[in-house]
């Protein structure tokens, strides 16, 4: 009875499947692929309680875009009776705007992204604007809070390259 109550209250998914996330990162102006952009996927578990929702880090995976600007991040696969939420994503490349920790789903739904991101089937085509040196100096660039450092080494290396470039 308790398991049914959790399922129907939306706290737990009885069956959950998450396949691969595919995308292509391009320059917003030239529409050319951006090679070497770091793509970080982060998963959280959500626990609902009387005081609201508490999120707990679950896992993270990162990759780098290839010469065609393309990437694939493996999802978590099948899960049964889980608190796992859908993946959040971070995309970062020296000299470009970043996609901050936002859900993959918001690339379809959020006002800022839904008109910019195009879809080829289930592959997101994500344009990044080039930033001026002044814009790059003003931006806040840090790693995602709560994600272990060993899970996003490539992102930290790319942030360090950006910091060196703007000095």
Short description:
The chain is an alpha+beta fold. About 20% of the residues lie in helices and about 40% in strands. A four-stranded mixed beta sheet has the order 5-2-10-9, with no helix packed on it. A four-stranded antiparallel beta sheet has the order 4-3-7-8, with helices on one face.
What is the element layout, followed by pairings?
Layout: H1 2-8, E1 13-18, E2 21-27, E3 38-49, E4 52-64, E5 70-73, E6 77-82, E7 88-92, E8 99-103, H2 106-109, H3 111-114, E9 118-120, E10 123-128, H4 133-138, H5 153-165
Parallel strand pairs: 2-10
Antiparallel strand pairs: 1-6, 2-5, 3-4, 3-7, 7-8, 9-10
Written description of the protein model:
This protein has 167 residues and is α+β, with helices and mostly antiparallel strands. 20% of the residues lie in helices and 40% in strands. It has helices at 2-8, 106-109, 111-114, 133-138, 153-165; strands spanning 13-18, 21-27, 38-49, 52-64, 70-73, 77-82, 88-92, 99-103, 118-120, 123-128. The chain has a 4-stranded mixed sheet, with no helix packed on it. A 4-stranded antiparallel sheet has the order 4-3-7-8, covered by helices on one side. The protein has a two-stranded antiparallel sheet with strand order 1-6. The longest helix is centred in the last third of the chain and has 13 residues, at 153-165. Mean pLDDT is 84; it is low at 1-10.
């Amino acid at each position: 009875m308790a398991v049914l109550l959790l399922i129907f209250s939306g706290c737990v998914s009885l069956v959950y499947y998450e396949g691969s996330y595919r995308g292509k990162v391009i320059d917003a102006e030239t529409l050319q692929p951006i090679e070497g952009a770091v793509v970080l996927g982060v998963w959280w578990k959500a626990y609902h309680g009387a005081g609201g929702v508490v999120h707990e880090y679950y896992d993270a995976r990162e990759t780098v875009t290839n010469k065609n600007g393309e990437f694939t991040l493996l999802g978590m696969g099948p899960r049964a009776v889980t608190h796992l939420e859908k993946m959040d994503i971070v995309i970062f490349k020296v000299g470009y705007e970043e996609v901050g920790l936002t859900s993959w789903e918001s690339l379809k739904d959020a006002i800022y992204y839904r008109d910019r991101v195009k879809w080829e089937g289930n592959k997101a085509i994500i344009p990044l604007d080039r930033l001026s040196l002044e814009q790059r100096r003003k931006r806040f660039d840090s790693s995602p809070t709560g994600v272990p450092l060993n899970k996003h080494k490539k992102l930290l290396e790319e942030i360090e390259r950006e910091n060196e470039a703007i000095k």
